[in-house]
Description:
mainly beta; 0% helix; Jelly Rolls; 485 residues
Amino acid sequence: MKNCFHFNMDIPDPDVIFHDGYYYMITTTMHFFPGGEILRSGDLKKWEHHSYVFDRLDGTPEQRLEGNGHIYGKGMWAPALRFHDGVFYVAFSCNDTHKTYLYRSDDLKGPWKRNEIKGFYHDLSLLFDDGKAYAVYGNTQIHLTELDQELTAPQEGGLDRIIVDDSSNPNLGYEGSHIYKKDGRYYLFLIHSCRDRWRRVEAMYVSDSLEGEFLGGDIFDNDLGIRDSGIAQGGMVSGPAGDHIVMFQDSDAAGRFPVAVPFEWQDGRPVFRQNCSVEECELTGLCGSDDFQGGHKDFWQFNHEPDLSLVKFENGFHVTTDKICKNIFYAKNTLTQKTMSPFCSAEVTVDASDLNEGDFAGLSAFQGDYAFAGITREKDGYYAVMLSNTSSGGTWDLSGEEGTLEEKTAISGSSVTVRVECDFLKDQATCFIKTQRGYIQTGKPHDLRFRLDHFTGCRFALSCFSTVRSGGTAVFSDYKNPAGL
């Protein structure tokens, strides 16, 4: 009996294809750059980082974290990955620019050619059929729109219709479209929520033609015994591991975890296996240690588009500030990597000798409710600090408050080694400072929450920000994450 494959890392909105002996998965990368991360696997169980699609998008002031601008909770969402006539296509909408982007290449390593598709296509899927291309997209009302030959706009006079409607759902109506043609029929996979409570449910609709009626309903309402949040939003893929639908599950502060669920075709419909056991995927190159010698490893992404004039990799990661910030959310050039559930830790040494008075530099469990361990410079010397934030606004509201100073300890010298440990069974982060006696806890364990202000799982992050005068520089070195390989 074939197993389900479960990821223990935030890899939301997966879209998967099988090509030339490998499965390829693309994921939402939102406000992290480079973006459009693609993973590769030979068997659906062992996955590795393969490539990124883009280094930057439009370079708007908000994407660059200029002033108080930002694109938290926005950016690149729910990409589609397709291969057609020797070309790979990646398409997605961006919720800060309200544009739809399409990238194409004959190699998943790039280079990628970019164009825009006129209009805004939420959670779109691409379909190539009989010499034509279509986008299927939308929230609650699912649209099918024929595109022009250049894939830059709707085809004038082309097919354009609503094919499924879930307007009466009081929670989440249909979205997350994934459309395919198989054996002459059109299969549309969608997510929506239970009507009486929030829970992910996968649905499927089928039609004999793009002009005909799409009929269907719920096909998968199950949590596989992992957690009671449902598993949904994904599409199907066929390969040497058999037929699977690759969806994802909400996993609280740790993020949204993909799950590959096997099925069999019976009478033109997927039938899921009973009592499917769950195997953890093996993830390589998606997080890990780094000495920052001459650059950084591929598992790092910057929070927002970086300003590389303020960054240097030379015996460490050097980052200089150019503005005043209230908290780490607005710190340019914050370098991040994914965490792993259920437990993980990271540590780093921070050289603060070139910080200005009022500067902070350190390592955090990075999301809306962050926990930060680091160092600050004051008039009379250097202090090891633990900062935290607990957002008090609505789930979409990014906190503009200064971090709460949980603990401050005077240190000798201008450098410190800190550690942050994450326990996702409790959704807590605990901070430590290294002393001659070993690591000593600083501050209390801090509660982490998945909120829509960031809309991402918790990450480890290296940040430097100024509260009095810009121009200070921190140097991060000897970053260690034992979970990464």
